[in-house]
Write the structure tokens for this entry.
Amino acid sequence: MNRRPQIKTGGFGASMTFSFVMHLALFFVITYSGLILAPHLQEAPVYYVDMVNLPVAHPQAGSPTVAGSQTGAVPQPPAPPQTMHLPAKTTPKTVAGAPATKPSVKGTPEETGREFEERLKQLERTTEARHQAAALEALKSKAAGTGKGQAGMPTGTGKEAGSDYASYIHSRLQDTFRTTIAYQSKNPVVVVRLTIGRNGRLLRYRIERSSGDRIFEASVIDTITKAEKSFPPPPGGTEFEQGFLFKPQGIGKQ
Amino acid sequence: MTFFAGTGLVVKLVLLILLYFSVVSWAIIFYKLLQVHRANSESERFLEFFWKTKRFDAINAQVDRFANSPLTVLFSEGYGELKKLMDRGEQKEEPDVISTDLGGIDNISRSLRRATTSEITRLEKYTTFLATTGATAPFIGLFGTVWGIMTAFKGIGETGSASLAVVAPGIAEALIATAIGLVAAIPAVMGYNHFQHKIRVLIGEMDSFSTEFLNIVQRSFAKK
């Protein structure tokens, strides 16, 4: 008689119960041990300090008093100065409604304050004198250069502001060079000396140094020919002569 | 408990599904560990007993001692089929001899194959749930996370505040779903791979035993 052996393996229900109990225990352990992030974080409180209305304990201390806005009266801001002089030092007595508990300053802190005031006054005077001198110089320069030349052209003469004719020519060449540049060697360099006549016409140009790149030289000459049309007459009614260094990166003055 | 209470309905549902997956997966793991361990140990003991004992009827009387071994089931099936063939031989007045002409050996072979298949099915029972958990739990957790983050951003939009205290709890709650999904999936995948390996070994043992059993039957009982 054939008979299959009776399997004695424990049922699946026992395993299920064991697994459930294990998960339950694990859940409580994790929850109560704080391993899982608490969902409600405490937001750090933000304190706003009224820096305008809060009286300071000491002008040099620069920090609000501990009493803060609890003080009854708010000190008035100092009156705007009428002249260029520094405002007179406001003593604690002149401040309206200053707190009664304001600490008295004496001894070394008072002396330091005076020295500071002195230094500040001296610095103020020096700066004022410099500003006045610079303004006077600017007015003189403006009066001397007014009414000369065209708008946008160098109008100054000699060493006056705006008299840098070479920079103007350089900028004209630079603008034109951007449209004509071409070269075949690695770092071609060409130095050209330009001579501009009294009427602003190019009298001559001389290649003082060449790197042998014919294409680059041709582009430099093309630049000069094109830029020549925009040259104004040199200041002072004299001829102008200047060397220019042409590189693929740009033009420099010699 | 507070983090669970603070989550939304969808995230709660996802967490419960994942908890179910995890509980059942671990239950299967425990059950299968026990089953495979018993199958291995009792197979070893049965093979030792099988080769020591010369008589099939004596072995058949003791099969209940090794009930968890798949080899015992194979032996019972094979022996049952052999006994039927021998009973038919007795009716033909040729006791202890089975005919190969009418496929006697093939009958035993077929019964052994059938027993092997049924044992494989028994051993592989529930392992598909482990595979399903390993494959789907991370995605279910990810769904909970995505939903939680969506809800968190919606809350941010409604409150108009994007401070850490507003954003962080929602994101943390949402990420818990992914974490639990992974916690459920990782043991399930590991368990599935482990049991697949153990079951393959047992299948190999069953094939070897079937071959040995057929050899013995052919040597001892088949008509020349």
User: Anything to note?
Assistant: Confidence is low (pLDDT under 50) at residues 93-107, 146-152, 158-162 of chain A.
